[in-house]
Amino acid sequence: MSHTSSEAAGSADREYFEFLADGQFMIPLCQACNRHHFFPRVICPHCGADSLRWVSPSGRGTVYATTTVRGKNGSHNVCLVDLDEGPRLMSTVVDTDSERVAIGLRVRARVARQDGQPLLVFSATEAA
Questions:
Q1: How far apart are alpha carbons 15 and 11 in whole angstroms?
Q2: Among 3, 15, 20, 110, which has the highest number of CB atoms less than 10 A from its own CB?
Q3: Chain-centre distance for alpha carbon 126
């Protein structure tokens, strides 16, 4: 059975969320150029190879950009985090007042649950 490119791309997303559901943070690593990437794809965005494998990154990173979203029920931050392995991804820093999350803050990833669903979040690894 052949797969369309959208089905293949969907399978990469599905694998990522299956790992999260099992409490694991995994990202693709290209076997050809030895670079990590995120979001999950079936072709390496760096070199175009399709020889990818899932690996567990260190989870350590640095806040690249952040903003505070304010609402009726309080506020939370939305941030871009540069993983030490290279990829940049969007998430949130939890367990820290959103006003204290700043560019350059060192963080570490963990899998949390929100409304019964797995969610990748970060916690500060230094005083915020």
A1: 6
A2: 20
A3: 20
